Amino acid sequence: MTDLLAEAQGLDGLDPLAVHLDAFVDAPGVSAYLDGNSLGRPLRSLPERLAEFVRDDWGTRLIRSWDEQWMDLPTELGDRIGLVAIGAAAGQTVVADSTTVLLYKLMRAAVAARTDRSEIVIEEGNFPTDRFVAEGIAAERGLTVRWLAADPVHGVRVEDVASAVSEQTALVVLSHVDYRSGALADMKAITDAVHESGALMLWDLCHSAGVIPIELDACGVDLAVGCTYKYLNGGPGSPAFAYVNERHHGVLHQPIQGWMGAGDVFAMGSAYAPADGIRQFISGTPPVLGMLAMQGMLDQIETATIDGVREKSKTLTDFAVRAFDELLAPLDVRLLSPRDAGKRGGHVTIGHPDFAEVTKTLWADGVIPDFRFPDGIRLGLSPLSTSHAEVLSGVLAVRDALRARADG
Predict the structure, then answer these.
(1) 2 alpha-carbon distance from chain centroid
(2) Are the C-beta atoms of residues 242 and 224 closer than 8 Å to each other?
(3) Among all residues, which ones are annotated catalytic?
(4) Which CATH number fits domain 71-300: 3.60.15.10, 3.40.640.10, 3.90.550.10, 3.40.309.10?
(5) Predicted TM-score of the model (pTM)
(6) Which tens digit of pLDDT belongs to each residue from 284-341?
(7) Superfamily of domain 2-43+305-407
(8) What sign does the dihedral 297-298-302-307 (CA atoms) show?
């Protein structure tokens, strides 16, 4: 224990990104926030930014702000996410709607462009919304869902995908980082394998955007969707983003035709004529308020660099695994994430039959991880807002809660 404490203090003392810790709001009564992979902390600057928005952008400029800044915000902010976080050149990313709605739009557009093919391939343990949307589209279009099995700890491998795709595959949908184990998929190799079969590749970036360097353009990815309330700290319900590689512009047509995706928004035309490029994937009025918080976080990431964020993520999760080995493994807790930091995203998952009740105790005591059925606790370590000492505090709290239950 003394060695772990000294190590945590040493890592924090050498952390080049430690200056960012003070940029985030401290929650009263919370000693360890280990759920940044579900909901990122707000920035201290956000209240003033919101007040400024109400006072000036909305309160003073009123509807004039649509012409002055809001109409182009979905694509401008999409370009910023593309530059800072996901390796996408301008004109291919848009912020709009929820993750579920954008998944529907892109999946539906993809299968409509592959009418000679009859299957959607998706991992059987993928996040529920991805699976549910795929099943709904398959039923709507008369397609078959081909379920891909993967190792629950190490995730989807290129061999798994290569053996699942065929000349009947229209679309493959996978998560870049597994929401359960944190396993990191090989984006380039898997995308290449999918393309060899003639299918399109859609990546869910919800657990990787903002914590792992992503190179969508360089990997030749066709489509991607990601949320903004995890490592991009956009706040609860903040809108998602969609990426459509420019080679598919004018070829893929989104299925929810709304006035904001029209070529001339205010023509009030008698028939829908889509806008050029990525803008056509907008449907309704952009959620401007929901786009405010993430802008400050993108500033933080840009300053730290996504490579710097990734390096700290590795030290945080490596330290969490070492603390697990010393403090939790002796209590029959299981490690449910890859040990190799290069094959792991920003969270570490641990398992024990008592963890549903342990999580309740932890939350009551101001230690906030999250529980995932049936018996997993995820330690979600958002690099810019989490210290190594905080990680140790959280792991110690898990140990103490388990001991207390054992002692009866």
Answers:
(1) 35
(2) yes
(3) 127, 204, 229-230, 378
(4) 3.40.640.10
(5) 0.97
(6) 999 999 999 999 999 999 999 999 999 999 999 999 999 999 999 999 999 999 999 9
(7) Aspartate Aminotransferase, domain 1 (3.90.1150.10)
(8) positive
